[in-house]
Design a protein that fits this description.
The complex is a heterodimer of chains A (419) and B (436).
Chain A (H helix, E strand, L loop, with lengths): L1 H21 L14 E2 L38 E17 L2 E20 L2 E12 L2 E9 L6 E22 L4 E26 L2 E29 L2 E8 L2 E13 L8 E3 L5 E3 L2 E10 L3 E10 L12 E2 L2 E11 L7 H4 L1 E9 L3 E3 L2 E2 L2 E11 L7 E11 L8 E16 L8
Antiparallel strand pairs in A: 1-4, 2-3, 2-22, 3-4, 4-6, 5-6, 6-7, 7-8, 8-9, 8-10, 9-13, 10-11, 10-12, 13-14, 14-16, 15-18, 16-17, 17-20, 18-19, 20-21, 21-22
Chain B lengths: L1 H21 L2 E2 L15 E5 L5 E6 L11 E8 L3 E12 L9 E18 L5 E8 L20 E11 L8 E5 L2 H12 L6 H7 L2 E6 L5 E5 L4 E9 L4 E22 L15 E2 L6 E5 L4 E6 L12 E12 L14 E8 L4 E4 L10 E7 L4 E7 L1 H9 L6 E7 L8 E5 L10 E10 L1
Antiparallel strand pairs in B: 2-24, 3-14, 3-16, 4-5, 4-11, 5-10, 5-13, 6-9, 6-11, 6-12, 7-8, 7-10, 12-13, 15-23, 16-22, 17-21, 17-24, 18-19, 18-20, 18-22, 20-21
Classes of the chains: A mainly beta (419), B mainly beta (436).
Chain lengths: 419, 436
């Protein structure tokens, strides 16, 4: 049976892998920067809890925030998580406004126990995503009074295939290892429409540059979780710096003739990911409430990277979540639901004109159990947030984000009581 | 439980696949954030590349397949005495005359074809000679050249002064020597000539030449003919009749030349001689028929490769303008120019084309009668691409030449590279760098 599940699951993973690469999951001009916008949607319940989950166990769902949590997968459980998201964002820049709607896949994950004290999981999430369209960028034709106009489209993204392994040293202390295979393609098409004036008629010529930037790399990390008491857990993670190797493939086409069909250049820089440290805390109280708190720091300064738009700077992330679930002893539908609220803030890894592109959002979430005999649940999260600001040439981006995670649990090898 | 899961897993799988298929991205055009991107394409407009304009003269030009007979002469203030004469071969399908026919007279009837160049008002004079050599094209090239000559009897069959009205009248009527006419008449009547072979053996053709004091060049169509007037005496009445002998257009051609003595073109004794525009009144020249043409050289086109990055020529046009007041109503220029690519050895490689292989012409881009400005634009993208991709690119030149070069004396005087900035010959290039 296990083999069958694994085959199903991997089939699923690899069918999605190809799709995940090609779809652009973002529509934000901020995704021009670096490798695009970092994916913020995680698995399971996290999305409603201010993205805080470093100290949470994976006892009822896949918690992708900390590999140590995989040690707490119950012995007979097999977890799946399928995530979808719908995002609409409103962009504002000095009186101009624009909005986009995007719906797409946000993750697919499986996790299962290896033994009583260890668990393993595979998660595929977008790591970053790119999606932007800039129209009619005016450039001067040097040596003349004329201009030409360029439309720019960006797409693609980096996928994160993450393998998590958790091991419980004892019933209080869990350790985890994680390895991420990061891969993907970021594309940009620049189409320039150039006016040509001859014989009193204006014709146009177009030059299209299609850049395919392939990135691939591997990142290691580890985590721990420690139950301070029955109701209190502490967690910590570390993700090591990594380098994503970059390859560029540029295709240039011109409407007036076929210019070199493909120009391969490798003049783009590899992308460095910084050291990431994170700490988390979870506390349950009053039986129905659970409070989670995360702090993460990304040491971007050490990567010495900059972009046309600005420089990469150290980034702090705070997440806070609160969950309420009624006592399960009263079997009413509304009592079986989980209610969540959260807040997260990060000061951004991007500094433009000495201003940081900050990101903050408030989240609300609800978990609807699918049946009473398992932990299967539909988790719906809603976030309202903003990025950037209108001043200093930045863009303010407000977004509504709806996430749906199907967090499913299959039970294996459970002996039937009636046998 | 297990069975349920086995069903559930694929169900979920397909549910997800379905969601993928319907997942959408609605992306409206974004007007914001445009300062954030570096446009990789750079476009340059360059009009400072060196253009070398010179005048040269083709040793000879092929004049077979001309569309008209060009006969006349005039003295051009720039080009000197310019003249054209026509060698004409005659033939017919019928060679028979009534036995009672009596010769009256013989005349050459030249039909105007509307072309004329320079002043038609003064009296013109044509001399008509009897050609004494078989008119036939060059053995090797099967062509007539503007320089081709045949021997003729120096006693003219006619020497006619006339006033010309090429627009008002439809033909010019020139009476020829009666002795010549009578002899031809008798040859046919007496059945000494029964077919073209016998006819051409005795009558090789005519040379129609203009007097050097003429003031105009006239165009005549090949529908012109030689006409014999005769009378058939009847018992009661005399009946006037005509016998026409037509022109053989394939063995008739124009010999076009100019007397360059005392002109800029005196030194153009060989095709290898190029007169820089700064030595010829800051101008370059074209004269159809005589082989005077303008050569354009773009000697340093590879300099555009000095612009960093990989680029492509998007568009290139040579702008060349008519020297002011040099194109007049009677010394007119045409709307189109023929452009040829030729090499250092003077071999014409072919007409200038665009990248798709279509022949392109120099076309009038700017015409202002008020300021007397006529500017032609010649698309050079293909030529420059060819030059840039050819190893010995300095071997390739352009020759700008007149249309109707085998049957007109149309002349063009162009501003050279030293003329004022808006009139001088220049290359306008739009160049794009797409990789740097």
């Amino acid at each position: 049976m296990i083999i069958k599940y694994i085959i199903y699951s991997f089939l699923l993973l690899f069918s999605i892998e190809t799709i995940a690469q090609t779809n652009s999951l973002s529509s934000s001009p901020y995704s021009l920067y670096g490798l695009g916008q970092t994916n913020e949607i995680s698995t399971g319940k996290i999305n409603g809890l201010g993205k805080s989950g470093i100290a949470m166990p994976s006892s009822t769902f896949i918690n992708n925030s900390n590999p140590a949590s995989f040690a707490s997968i119950p012995l007979n459980s097999f977890f799946y998580d399928f995530g979808f998201k719908a995002e609409t964002n409103i962009l504002m820049e000095n009186g101009r406004q624009n909005s986009n709607l995007i719906t797409n896949f946000s993750n697919i994950a499986i996790a299962f126990p290896l033994s009583k004290t260890s668990g393993f999981g595979v998660t595929l999430t977008p790591f970053t995503s790119v999606g932007y369209t800039l129209s009619n960028i005016e450039s001067n034709i040097e040596g003349s009074a004329y201009s030409f106009y360029t439309d720019v489209d960006g797409g693609g993204g980096i996928n994160n295939l993450k393998l998590n392994y958790g091991y419980a040293l004892n019933n209080k202390f869990r350790l985890g290892l994680t390895g991420s295979v990061l891969f993907g393609k970021i594309t940009q098409t620049q189409t320039s429409t150039i006016p040509l004036i001859a014989n009193n008629t204006v014709s146009t010529s177009t030059i299209s540059l299609y850049d395919e930037n392939y990135y691939s790399g591997f990142r290691l990390g580890s985590g721990l979780q420690y139950d301070i008491s029955k109701n209190m857990t502490f967690g910590a993670i570390v993700n090591l710096p990594a380098t994503l190797n970059a390859d560029n493939d540029r295709t240039a086409t011109s409407s007036t003739e076929t210019i070199e069909s493909s120009v391969s250049i490798s003049n783009i820089d590899d992308f460095k990911l910084p050291l990431e440290l994170g700490f988390g805390f979870q506390s349950k109280f009053n039986e129905s409430f659970s409070l989670t708190l995360d702090y993460k720091k990304n040491f971007w300064n050490n990567t010495n990277q900059s972009d046309l738009l600005g420089t990469f700077v150290n980034q702090d992330f705070f997440g806070l979540g609160l969950q309420y679930s009624a006592k399960k002893s009263i079997p009413k539908f509304f009592n079986s639901l989980e209610y969540r609220a959260g807040f997260n803030y990060d000061n951004g890894n991007l500094e433009v004109n000495n201003k940081r592109v900050k990101n903050q959002s408030i989240n609300l979430g609800i978990g609807i159990p699918l049946n009473s005999s398992s932990n299967s649940m539909i988790n719906i999260g809603y976030s309202y947030g903003s990025k950037g600001q209108i001043t200093n040439g930045l863009i303010k981006e407000n977004y509504h984000l709806l996430s749906i995670n199907l967090s499913l649990e299959g039970i294996w090898f459970q002996k039937r009581k009636i046998d | 439980m297990i069975i349920k899961q086995v069903i559930a897993v694929p169900l979920v799988f397909f549910a997800i696949l379905f969601l993928f298929l319907v997942s959408c991205e609605e992306d409206t055009t974004l007007p914001v954030g445009e300062d954030w991107i570096d446009v990789s394409t750079k476009v340059y407009f360059i009009d400072t590349l060196t253009v070398k304009a010179t005048t040269f003269k083709f040793d000879s030009i092929v004049v077979s397949n001309a569309s008209r007979l060009l006969i006349g002469a005039y003295t051009d203030p720039v080009f000197g005495l310019s003249k054209s004469k026509s060698y004409v071969q005659l033939y017919n399908s019928v060679y028979s005359l009534d036995n009672d026919a009596v010769f009256d007279s013989i005349a050459l009837i030249l039909k105007y074809d509307n072309y004329f160049y320079n002043d038609t008002i003064p009296t013109q004079k044509f001399n008509i000679y009897r050609v004494t050599q078989k008119i036939e094209p060059d053995d090797e090239t099967d062509a007539f050249y503007n320089t081709t000559e045949f021997t003729y009897d120096s006693t003219p069959l006619a020497s006619e002064s006339f006033l010309t009205y090429p627009k008002k009248e439809d033909s010019l009527h020139i009476l020829l020597n009666n002795t010549f006419g009578k002899a031809l008449f008798d040859d046919i009547k007496d059945n000494d000539i029964n077919n073209s072979e016998e006819f051409l053996y005795r009558y090789k053709g005519l040379l129609i030449e203009a007097d050097h004091s003429n003031t105009t060049i006239l165009g005549f169509s090949y529908d012109s003919f030689l006409r014999i007037y005769y009378t058939i005496k009847d018992e009661t009445d005399d009946v006037s009749n005509e016998f026409d002998i037509t022109f053989n257009s394939s063995n008739s051609f124009n010999n076009i030349s100019s007397d360059t003595q005392g002109t800029y073109f005196e030194s153009l004794t060989d095709q290898d001689v190029y007169l820089p525009s700064y030595l010829t009144n800051n101008a370059t020249y074209i004269q159809a028929g005589t082989g005077i043409a303008t050569r354009i050289e773009i000697p340093y086109i590879e300099k555009i490769n000095d612009i960093p990055g990989t680029g492509t020529i998007l568009d290139a046009n040579l702008k060349i303008s008519i020297k002011q007041s040099s194109s007049t109503e009677i010394l007119f220029t045409n709307d189109d120019l023929n452009i040829y690519i030729y090499n250092k050895n003077g071999e014409v490689l072919g007409s200038l084309t665009d990248s798709a292989g279509e022949t392109v012409l120099g076309l009038i881009e700017n015409e202002s009668s008020e300021y007397n400005i006529i500017t032609y634009s010649i698309p050079l993208k293909y030529f420059l691409d060819l030059k840039l991709s050819t190893i010995n690119d300095d071997n390739l030149f352009l020759a700008i030449y007149s249309q109707n070069y085998n049957d007109s004396l149309d002349r063009y005087i162009f501003n050279g590279e030293k003329a004022s900035n808006d009139l001088k010959v220049k290359l306008e290039l739009t160049y794009a760098i797409y990789d740097n």
